[in-house]
Amino acid sequence: MEAGEEFGPWLARQLKIAGKTQAELAEELGLTRAAVSAWITKRSVPRPTVMVEIAKALGTDLGTVHTRTTDTRAGLPVTWYHRPGYRDGGRDGGNAAAFAFDADVQVLARETCQNSLDERLVGNGRPVRVRYTIHELTGEKLEAFRAAVLWDELQPHYLAVSESAADQKVGRVVDAGVRDMFEKGRLILLRVDDYNASGLTGDDYDDGKFAAVVRRQLESLKSGSGAGGSYGLGKATLWATSALGMVLINSTLSVPHEGRTERRVIGRLELPWRVVDGDQFAGPAWLGRPDPEKPNAEVVRSWWADEETVDRLHLTRDSDEPGTSFLIVGAHDVASLAPEKADAAADEDGDGSVDDGTRDIKVMHKRLVEALGRDFWAAMTGGGSKLPLLETSVRTLRNGEVVIEEETVDPGDKQPSRTRALRAFFEGTTVDRLTQAGQVALRTVPLRLPLSGGRRGTLGTHRGVLLVTDAEDKDGAPNQVHSLRGNRMTIRKAGVSGLPLGVNQFQAVLLVGHAAGDSAPFAEEAEEFLRAAEPPEHDRWGQTEELTLRWSHSAHHRITRLTTEVNAAVKDLVVRPKSAGSQESAKVRKKLTVQRKATPAKRAAGPTLPELDGLEAEIGADGEWKITAEVKLPRAEELPAMSPVVLLDVRSGSRPRLDWAELSAVEGCEIENGTLRFTPRARRAVFRGSTDVTSHPVRSEYTRLVLELRAGTGE
Questions:
Q1: Which residues contact 323 (CB under 8 A, 6 or more apart)?
Q2: Which distant-in-sequence residues (6+ apart) come within 8 Å of 129 by Cβ?
Q3: Alpha-carbon separation of residue 46 from 282, 420, 520, 550 (angstroms)
Q4: What DSSP designation does 521 have?
Q5: How far apart, in whole angstroms, are the C-alpha atoms of residue 235 and residue 216?
Q6: In angstroms, rounded to a whole number, what is the distance separating the alpha carbons of residues 642 and 67?
Q7: Full DSSP string of 552-597
Q8: Residues 453-497 pLDDT 10s
Q9: First-to-last CA distance in the chain?
Q10: In what helix (H) or strand (E) does residue 75 lie, and over which residues does it extend?
Q11: Which of 100, 109, 210, 411 is the Cys-Cys partner for 380 at CB 3.0 to 4.6 Å?
Q12: pTM for the predicted model, two decimal places
């Protein structure tokens, strides 16, 4: 049970809420003002018989006065406060910070999970737990929620925004959100709960996490040096994901405020400038209890809500663990509206052909799970003495009934190869070189940190950790390096350039900063440097204004050199060394010809034909030609089927055609009856083949080979 607040501070706040002075309370109780002052200043406490009279004076019950775990209901009621228009006539068309991100639940997952990781309570060693709940309301449930958020007070403001929607981008989004709610009779709530996090601590107005999130823009107050965020923009994704611009908040604090920790509630509304009943309003509004200390008690502050109130607002938390619940009202996912994404998500669920009214929320569910597994697999991975930093799950409801059961994101299922690599690092089971399937090779790579302030020279060399292992199908695109630092969120994804054809597919992980281990030299400095090199999206490292101001305009070249070192180390691990027979291989290569222009009669019309771009071959043990070919694919929605044709080069006459004994796809294509069919939107394709020795008119050692790519079936 939560411990009650000290009597003095609690009574002082109740008097402010009720609009009473100490003298007025003393007169009602038949006591001196000095006696009430002694209670307020904690010099004494009232006798039990006086407690009864205090409860009557405050309009509450005796239990509330004794426990002091909630405010009395006397005084000013919870309401919406709308910021007045600027006196100088200035207007805001919405919160500019929200335009830094798309209304995309995958972007929301990345930013909110990053924030929760940054606020994890590290003292107990446990991970921060983040749960996403998608909840669609219809009918009576929707009406009850609208009543809970005082919709009647808000409706004139939404009407004013709708009337001016043609002139404001934010206004058009809000107008569409309101129409969707009323025309379709539904509202989607998306709640983000974190547990084992710090919560929104601090005063309503002074510096602190509460004010940074609820009151201010572009302010970031992170708990540790390894934090992912630095711009104060991530919170804007919450409001950007709401078609109504509304987010409600319930926080359980890790540090008491006003003697309380549970059910600190407030709401914030982001609307553009508007005129309602002749009065101008600047934009934002807050749902809370009017603050008696502010002029005319108009400005509202957070309030300590009872359990019934948080239940009506759909803000009930699962436990008394510290953390915060953000409820996005009218959640929309613009990115999922693309037909191919919606169809893919619905088909994966096995009911793409049946629309029972839950299609949108099912697509949201799938996209959230996909984003969490892609961006936070490392934070959710543990091994050896290292525990996971994060646990995530997604569930979907409709009017309180389960649509999709809670799904805990398993990093080993979403990213098997990378998870295996990181776990091997934690457990100390890495090897120096890959010799067997399933092994994880480790190399260290240098990041030479510059001196700050534009000074020439190197502060020191940080040793990042590079892990390389075999790729699996579930990993996504092969031959990628995922880079991450202290909070173990994937920052950068990049391919390795200059890989030869035929290299075994792999996945690589680069750990820098605190992620490289507690003993890594200059880990703290590497965290600071790389954090400054990240843009607001935190999806790459490169030139930024902060990097230029704190270090120099050329500081980003240090990151470029790190990338070069990483690529070289990867190639050293995955590229097979040249054998003693490399001179013989060179002779073989001289016998190969890539026919870049197909026979005109066989050439399809139009400029969008795939083109052979690389070829490797060797003569097998049975005398067959073994070929690996790369095809460059043009940008086109539809590419024609192409057939690889292998011929013998002769000085005169027609070239003899050889038969294929085997033909297989490696990347970006499929083989169907000897014909290549290319993957949509792929930029390259690779295939392998072996010739049929029985079709060779002479021994392979005495021939030169020509490979053509012909449109159609090649017959």
A1: 116, 128, 193, 194, 195, 196, 197, 198, 199, 251, 252, 317
A2: 194, 195, 196, 390, 391, 392, 393
A3: 46, 64, 59, 58
A4: T
A5: 10
A6: 79
A7: -TTTHHHHHHHHHHHHHHHHHHHSPPP-TTHHHHHHHHHTEEEE-S
A8: 888 889 999 999 999 999 988 888 899 999 999 889 999 998 887
A9: 81
A10: none
A11: 411
A12: 0.73
Q: Pull the structure tokens for residue 197.
A: 């996090």
Identify the H or E element spanning 551: none
Arithmetic mean of pLDDT, 278-286: 91
Q: Which of 543, 541, 520 is nearest to 531 (CA)?
A: 541
196-205, 338-347, 656-665: lowest mean pLDDT where?
338-347
Average pLDDT of the chain, as a whole number:
84
Residue ranges of E strands in 312-374: 323-331
Distances (CA, A) of 457 to 205, 454, 461: 44, 9, 11
Query: Which amino acid does the sequence have at 699?
Result: R
Q: Is 509 helix (H, G, I), strand (E, B) or coil?
A: strand
DSSP state letter for 120:
B
d(CA 230, CA 541): 14
- Is 70 exceeded by the pLDDT of residue 606? no
Burial of 592 (0-12, 13-18, 19+ CB in 10 A): middle
Do 281 and 318 contact (CB within 8 A), yes or no?
A: no
Residue 676 has phi, psi (to 5 degrees) of -90, 125
The amino acid present at 24, given as its one-letter code, is E
Residues 7 and 261 sit within 8 Å (Cβ to Cβ): no
Q: Is 34 exposed, middle or buried (0-12, 13-18, 19+ CB in 10 A)?
A: exposed
Residue 570 CA to residue 577 CA, distance in Å, equals: 13
